[in-house]
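Batch job 17 of 40 flagged for manual review because the log was empty.
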Amino acid sequence: MKFKITGKGKENIEKKKEENIKRGRKSKRKGSSYERNIAKKFKEVYKEDLVRTPQSGGFAKKSVKADGFRGDIVLSSDKEFLLHIECKNTQTWVLPKWIEQAENDCPEGKKPIVIFHKHNTSKNYVTMSLEDFFSLIPKELIIKEQEK
């Protein structure tokens, strides 16, 4: 049995569909803006050009040839970038899901990290495995001898 939607019902469905499209575009712009902002922060600190990956790296997930373009932010030079960055700018935190995405999408030889924003603040956070942290951060940067 098929039903044909007419009148107000059809108008409501079309209106809802348009609202969802607008919400999706706004969310995509918000995410893209956040990725560019994080790339800019990396550039300020490390003096290297990092850029937002086209389509947030989504186009490269299936191709080994595109490993250098996986993640949300990549180095724009020929230098090797050891991080696979996933950026998240959302009010709802689903950290286990984000970590799983970063680890699953991470090419061999890189360290997956998730950079996310705490809403209503200007704070950004980084999460990664403890093993990756230990492999990237030398002891001298976190433990100093006391002066006598």
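Reviewer: the log was empty due to a logging misconfiguration, but the result itself is present. The CA atoms of residues 47 and 115 lie 19 Å apart. Unflagging and moving on to job 18.
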